[in-house]
Automatic annotation (TrEMBL), chains A, B, C, D:
Pfam families (alphabetical): GFO_IDH_MocA (PF01408), GFO_IDH_MocA_C3 (PF22725)
Domain Gfo/Idh/MocA-like oxidoreductase N-terminal: 8-134
GFO/IDH/MocA-like oxidoreductase domain ranges (all copies): 144-289
Native species: Gracilibacillus halotolerans
PANTHER family (UniProt xref): BCDNA.GH03377
SUPFAM superfamilies listed in its UniProt record: Glyceraldehyde-3-phosphate dehydrogenase-like, C-terminal domain, NAD(P)-binding Rossmann-fold domains
Protein keywords: Oxidoreductase
Descriptive protein name: Putative dehydrogenase
Length: 390, 390, 390, 390
C-alpha cells in the first residue's frame, strides 16, 4: 500500500547533469518499485545561481529552492542530503551534513584527495548516518547479474580484468575549459571522472587492488576559457585561453590482491566512443563482457558448455531472472542510463529503512580515492605504487 | 516557466502493461521537456477490478480511480481519455469519449475490425477532438532520425522494406490462454499485436501499401485456461484447456504504392528473440537498419561514401543532432523503451496545444487495420488482396 | 601415404569466377585433407576464347586446354567433367558427359528449366555416374555444424526458416547487361543465382517445400550492353542499351512439408550488403543464425540454458569439434569462401571413391529447379503454387 | 604469361603449424597473383623426424625432404631458406643461410634475444640477401587498408593505440608442457608468441615505441610433460610434471616516440577468445578497430562525417578498393587466415625480383626483439624501461 508508506525527505545541493539524474531517480523510484520502503519527497534543491536553480526546481519538480547550501542542511524537514556539486565542494558539504545527522548521497569521486575523503568517512561514521557514493554503473542490471555469476563461482578464479572507459566529448580543441578540466575543482580529469567508475566496477566485481603503475597525458594543454557549466557540452570563447590542469587520458596496470591482472584505460580522446564504458573479465571457467553503450546486454562465455557449442552468449538482461528487470518492462524492452540511478537509490533507501549500510559508500569512496592517488603518484614518479602506501 | 504552464487533465481506462507505459510517460514528460506546452495531470484511472485499479492508482500516482469507465468520460475535469484496455473495448470507449469532446490516446491496434475503426475515426472527426494511436516505435529517436534521412533523400528511391518482429514469450505450451490469444478480445495474434507495429513503421518510413499476400499459422492450438491478465507473463492452470483462436505467426509479402517490395514477419515463436522488432530499408543511395533490442543504434549505409570506406555506420542516436536526444542525457548515455512513449505523448500534447492533428492517429489506425484485414483475408483465401478492396 | 594414392583426372568446362573457385579447390584438397581418397589431377580446361582459356590454364595450373568442350568429354584420360559455364549450357554438356561415363560436378542452378534438369538427372542415373551440384554454402563448417545440431534434435521442431540473400553489385544503372541479366542464358536473376542457394540451404537444413507464393521485380529495366564476362564486375558501354530480362529481386513465402513457415528474399539491390547470405531458424528448443559475410560464426540459442543465462552464443566454428575445422587451422584462425568448395569437392571424391552418391546432387538440382519454377509461376500468376504441381 | 616466369626455389626448415601456413602460401601465390614476378618451387623441406617430415613433404607437395637442415642450405638449387622451426634455432639457421647467400624468410619472433637477433641482422646485411620476418597480420587486407588510411592522414595525429591479443588454448591445466611453454626454446610465452604480433602492428601503424612498463604472470606454473609438438593442441601425460618457464600473460603500457599512448595485453588465459588479435587506434580525426577473428572487417570512425551520421563503419574489406582484394574473390566473399601469408610472400618475392628490401624484415625483427626484452626487463624490475637503453 503506497499510501501509507513512510516518506523520506531529500535536499539536493547542485542541479546540473547529475542533479537531473538523481532527481529523476527519486521521482521514478516509487513508480517502479512497489516494495520501496520509503517514498522520496523532493523537498529542496540548492544552487548559487538563483535563476538557474529556480528553473531546475520547477523543471524537476522540487518543492522549493535555496541559494545557500547551508540552509538546506539546517532544515529540520530534510532526511537526506544529496551532493551533486563539483568535486571540490563535496567534503565541506558532506561533513556539514553528517554533523547535522543527515544521510548522504554524493556524486563520485568522493573528494579531491584521500585526506579529504577520509575526513568525510570519519564524519559519517561518527554521526552514524547512512552514506553512498553514486557509482551508478554497479547498478546496471547486467552488472548486477555479472556480480551474481561471479559470486556463484560461475567463472571461477579470475585471471584478467580489462576495463576501457572511452569518451570523445572534448576532442575538439575549441571545447572550453570547463570545471571538469581544472584540477582545483575536479581533482583529476579522465582518471577521476570516468576511470573512477572502472575502478569501482573492478573493486565490486573482482576485489581490492594491491598496486598500480600508470601513465597519464594531457593532449590539448590550453583551451578557451568558457562557461563553467556542469554539463558535458559547452561552447568556449576562443579569445582567452587557459591551462588544462587535468589528464585527458590515463592507462593503468594493476595487480589485485587475489592475483588478478588488471588493465584500465580512461580517456576523453577516443573518437567515436561516446560513452564506451566497458570491461571484460576472464576467469578459469568463463568470461564476461559488458559495455555501457549497450548496457542491457551481457556477454557470457562458459567453458563448461559442450564442445563445439561454446561461445559468448549475448544475454539481454531484461528477463525476469535478471536483477531489477521485473521492476521495469517485459523481456526485450530495454532500459537506459537513468535506470542505474533508480536502482542505486532504491538500495540507498533500503539501507536507511532497514538500517544497514549500502554500497558503494564512503568507504568505497575512500578506497577509490586511494587508488586514484596511487595512480597519479605512479604516473608522476614513473613507478609502481602500493595501494597500502597511500 | 513551468509554474504557469497550462495543465492537461488525463483520464486513463485500463491499468496494465500499457497503462504503466503511458502513466510513466505523463509523469516524465514535464521533467524532460522544458518546452512542453501542456503539463499532464494524472486525474483518474479506471478498471473493473477495484483492488487492482486502486493499487495501480497508488503505485503510478493517479489522483483517483473508477471502476466504471463511463464515469471517467462523464467527468468535466478530464481533457484526455487514454485507452489502454484490451482491443475489443477500444471502439466503444473511444466513441463515447469523442462524443464527450475528449481528446483521445489509444493503444494499438485501433480496433478489432476495419468497420469498428472507421466508426471511431468518424466519431473523432465529427467531434473535432485530437486523436492518436500509440504506435510508439515511431518515436524511438533512431526511427525519427531514419525518417529524417529518408525525407532528405539520403537513401533515394526505396527498393526494399524488410521487417521482422520476433518474440518468444509464448513458446512454452504451458503458457496460458491469455486475452491476447483469443480472437474475440484481441482481434488477431502476432499480426495485430506486433505485426501492426511493423506495418506502422513501414507506412511511416516508406509509404502506403497497395497489396499483400500472407500466410498465418497457429503452432500451439490449445493452451491451459489461465488468468486473463494483460501482462505478457502468466502461469496457466494445466487442467482445463482452451482453443487458441489467433495466429502465432504471420509472414507477408507486400507491394507498396511507390513500387517498394516489402516483406514482413511477425511471430511469437522465434526463440531467443525477446522483442526483436527490426527492419532494414534498401534505397538506391543507401540502406538503414534498426533493431528495437538495441534501439539507440541506427545502422546507416551510404553509397556516396568513398570507395573502400563504405560500410554500415553504427550510429549511436544519442548525439544532440538526433531527434529528442537533447531532452535526455549526454551523448552515449542510452535511453530505453519507455522513452518512446514520452516522445509520443509530447507530440500528442503539442498537437492539442497548437491545434494540429499529430500522427499516428485514428486515420493511421484505420489504414493499419485495413492492412491487417487484407493480410488475414489473403492468408485465408491464399491470394493477393488489394488494400483498396477492403 | 599421399604418394600412392589413386588419382582422379578432371576436365573443366568454363574458366571464369566459378572456374577459379573449383580449380582452387582441386589444388588445395590434397594439401588440407590427408585422408583424401583421391588426388585430383587438373588435366584440361576448356573455353571458346583461346587466349582467355590459355591464360586461365597457366594461371590456375591446368595441364592443357581446349576450345571445344566436346573434345574434353571425348578424352579417355578424364574421370570427371566439371561444368562452370553459364547456365544455359549445363544440360547439353552434362548429358554428353554422362553418356561418356564421366562423373559430373556442375555449377548451380542445374539448368534453365525443370524439363532440362530432369533430362540431366535421367542421364546421370542411366549411366551410373556420380553427380553433384555446387551448392557450396552447405559446406561452410558452420552450416554443417548447424545441420548436425538440427539432426541431433538440439532445436526441436522447426517453426521458422528465414533466409535473406542480399547483394548490391548491380545497383549502379551503368552496370552492363552481363549474361547473368539475360534470361535465355541464366534462366533467372537473383532467384536462380542467389535465391537458389537459400533454397538449397532450406532443403538441407529443414526439409522439402510444399508450396510457395512469391513476388519478383526488375528495378532497372535497361542496361548498357557490355562484355558478357562471367565475373561479377564489369564496365558497360553506355551507348547501346539492352533489356534486362531477369529479376533483380524476389521475395517468397513458403510452406514446408513439415509445417515450417519459410520466408526467402534474394536481391541484388540491397546497398551495403555485398554478399549477405544469411538465415535464421527458430525451433521449439532453440534457434540458429548464420551469415556468410562472417561465415565462421554460428549463432546458437538454446532454450534449455539456465534462466538468465540464455542468449545467442556466438560460436566461432573453428574448434576441432566443428566439421572440417581440423583440416585447416587452429581454433580462432578463420577460413573463407574458397574453403566451402574444398569441403564440397572432398565429399564429391569420397562419393566416387566409396561408391555412394554425395549430396547435393542432380536430384537436389531438380528439386531446386522445381521450386525456382514454382516461384516464377507464383509471381507471374500471383497465386500460391504447389511444388508437386510442377 | 605464367609459363615463362622466373622460378624461385624454396627450402623450408621445419614443417609444423607454420610450415603448413608457409607451404600453402607458396602453392597458392601463382594461382591468385597473375602478376607475381617469381613462381615458387617447393624444392625441399627439412625436419629431424624422418617419418614426420616425409609425410609433410608428401602432404604439402614438396619435391624432396632432408633430416639435416644444413643439407638444405648447402644445396645450390635453393634460392630462399624459410625457417619455421622453434625460436631457439632461428639464429643459427638464418646466419648459415645468409652466409650461403640465400634469401631468408623466418617466423617470428626473430630470435630468443636481442643479441641473437642483431647477429642475424648483421649476417643478412653483410651478405646482401633479402630477409623477412613473418608478421603475417600486417598483410591482412583490412590492416593494409588501415595503414593506407593512416598514411593519408585520414585519422590525423594518433592519441591511442590499444591492442589485445587474447587466446585460451592452454587454460586447461592438463595441457602439456609444449615447447612454446619453455623459455629456452621459445624465449618467452604470450609475450613473444602473440604480443610480438601486436607490437609489430603497432610499429607498422603508429611508429616506434620509446619506453615501456609491463607486468607478466604465469598462472599455471607446472604442467604435464608432453609431446614437444609444434601444433597448438596436444595431450599431456599427467604423470610427470615440468615447470612452465614462460609468461602466460603480459600487460604493457607504452609511450611511442610520437607521443601516442599505447596499451598492450597478450594472454593465453582469456576464455572464449580463441585468437582475438585486435586493436583500436584513436586519432584526432578518426578511429580504427580491427579484430583478427573477423579479419575481413575494419571499423572506421570519421569525425568529419556529418553531425548525426557519425558512427563506426563496418567495412567489409573485400571490395576492389581494398588491398589484395582483387586477387581473391568478388566483394563480400571473405578470405581467411592463410591469405595473410600469401600476401606477405607476394611482397617478399617482389622484393627479391625488384631488388628492394621488403618489410617486416630482420630490422623490424631486431626492433621487435628489443621491445620484448624491454618489456621483460620492466616486468622483472618493476619500472619503466627506455627502448634505447636495451
Amino acid at each position: 500500500m503506497v499510501g501509507v508508506k513512510k516518506k523520506i525527505r531529500i535536499g539536493m545541493i547542485g542541479y546540473q547533469f547529475m542533479g537531473k539524474a538523481h532527481s529523476h531517480a527519486y521521482r521514478d523510484l516509487p513508480f517502479y518499485f512497489d516494495d520501496a520502503p520509503l517514498i522520496p519527497e523532493l523537498k529542496v534543491i540548492a544552487g548559487r545561481n538563483e535563476e538557474a536553480v529556480k528553473q531546475a526546481q520547477e523543471q524537476m519538480g522540487w518543492e522549493s529552492y535555496e541559494t545557500d547550501w547551508r540552509k538546506v542542511i539546517e532544515r529540520d524537514d530534510i532526511d537526506v542530503i544529496d551532493i551533486v556539486t563539483p568535486n571540490h565542494t563535496h567534503a565541506e558539504i558532506a561533513i556539514a551534513a553528517a554533523e547535522a545527522g543527515k544521510h548522504i548521497m554524493t556524486e563520485k569521486p568522493l573528494a579531491l584527495t584521500v585526506e579529504e575523503s577520509k575526513r568525510m568517512l570519519e564524519a559519517v561514521q561518527k554521526h552514524g548516518v547512512k552514506h553512498m557514493v553514486c557509482h551508478n554503473y554497479r547498478y546496471a542490471p547486467a552488472v548486477q547479474f555479472a556480480k551474481k555469476l561471479i559470486d556463484e563461482g560461475k567463472i571461477g578464479r579470475i585471471y584478467h580484468f580489462r576495463a576501457n572507459y572511452l569518451q570523445d566529448f572534448i576532442m575538439d580543441p575549441s571545447f572550453p575549459l570547463v570545471w571538469r578540466l581544472k584540477k582545483e575543482v575536479s581533482g583529476s580529469g579522465a582518471l577521476g571522472d570516468i576511470g573512477a567508475h572502472s575502478i569501482d566496477l573492478a573493486r565490486f566485481l573482482v576485489g581490492e587492488i594491491e598496486e598500480v603503475t600508470a601513465m597519464m597525458d594531457t593532449f590539448i594543454k590550453e583551451r578557451p576559457i568558457g562557461e563553467m557549466t556542469g554539463g558535458l557540452s559547452a561552447q568556449g570563447d576562443a579569445q582567452e585561453m587557459g591551462e588544462v590542469t587535468v589528464d585527458d587520458a590515463v592507462a593503468i596496470l594493476a595487480r589485485f590482491e587475489n592475483g588478478t591482472m588488471g588493465t584500465f584505460e580512461a580517456t576523453r580522446f577516443a573518437g567515436g566512443n561516446r560513452n564506451k564504458n566497458k570491461f571484460e573479465i576472464n576467469g578459469e571457467k568463463g568470461s564476461i563482457r559488458w559495455d555501457m553503450e549497450n548496457m542491457n546486454n551481457l556477454e557470457l562465455y562458459l567453458a563448461e558448455d559442450r564442445d563445439g557449442e561454446q561461445g559468448f552468449r549475448l544475454i539481454h538482461c531484461t528477463d525476469e531472472a535478471h536483477p531489477y528487470a521485473a521492476n521495469y518492462w517485459p523481456s526485450g524492452h530495454i532500459i537506459g542510463y537513468e535506470h542505474t540511478f533508480i536502482n542505486l537509490v532504491d538500495e540507498f533507501f533500503r539501507g536507511i529503512a532497514e538500517d544497514y549500510q549500502p554500497t558503494p559508500n564512503f568507504e568505497d569512496g575512500v578506497r577509490n580515492q586511494i587508488i586514484l592517488e596511487a595512480v597519479e603518484k605512479s604516473a608522476e614518479e614513473k613507478r609502481w605504487v602500493s595501494i597500502d602506501k597511500i
